[in-house]
Amino acid sequence: MDLRSRLADIDARISDAARSAGRDPSGITRIVVTKFHPVDLVQDLAGLGVTDVGENRQQELSAKREAYAGDPVRWHFIGQAQTNKARAVRRDADAVHSLDRTRLADALHAARANDADVLDVLIQVNLTEDPGRGGVAPLGVDELAEHVAATCPSLRLRGVMAVAPLGEEPAPAFERLASYSAGVRTVVPDADWISAGMTGDFAEAIAAGATHLRIGSAITGPRPVHG
């Protein structure tokens, strides 16, 4: 299938999953992950009506945003962020899905361009028992939310993000994420985004309340060989 057909196929599957879960498909944002693809693909996606794209690496995000000249899109940074890259991430991302520690929150806040500059952020939650995986441990979610709300006024806390663990069915993992989302909303009531679900598990994510899906190669096609 070509790009248009792949996009239409995924959107139809998203709509079917939403209806099966008793949800309105219009309440779900599909983010197309363009990792390792050239900026021309972003141009092509925008021409097909895509409004949200995702990048995993700061250098790639920055290069594509600078080179991009198409219809307006929102750039979502979904990879692990280093504090020393906070200024570049802040400059080039419209939303950061991978906030996982207070030092990063402080660095992103300090990197604001001016007092009117506001960045959407989501707290990434580690749904595994492995502390080496990205994300804050579940017991630290509310504390991080409170830190952002109390000390980082230029960060607008939108909700939570997670990746389903390997070796576990995604449905119960996403149900846990939904419970952590509810905890965050006791701190910031309108932080109702749940960024969860990729190509293989977006139906389970939608059933658990996901509002933002991160879909890559099922739409973009195989990633170019990257050395």
TrEMBL record:
Where is the signal peptide, in residue numbers? none
Q: Which residues form the Alanine racemase N-terminal domain?
A: 37-224
What UniProt keywords apply to this chain's record, in alphabetical order?
Pyridoxal phosphate
The answer to whether keyword tRNA-binding applies is no
Cofactors required = pyridoxal 5'-phosphate
GO terms, molecular function: pyridoxal phosphate binding
Q: Which residues carry this modification: N6-(pyridoxal phosphate)lysine?
A: K35
- Superkingdom, natural source: Bacteria
Report the sequence similarity comment from the record. Answer: Belongs to the pyridoxal phosphate-binding protein YggS/PROSC family.
Q: Which HAMAP family match?
A: PLP_homeostasis (MF_02087)
NCBIfam families given in the database record: YggS family pyridoxal phosphate-dependent enzyme (TIGR00044)
Tell me, what does this protein do in biology? Pyridoxal 5'-phosphate (PLP)-binding protein, which is involved in PLP homeostasis.
**What is the name of this protein?**
Pyridoxal phosphate homeostasis protein
Q: What is the lineage of its organism?
A: Bacteria, Bacillati, Actinomycetota, Actinomycetes, Micrococcales
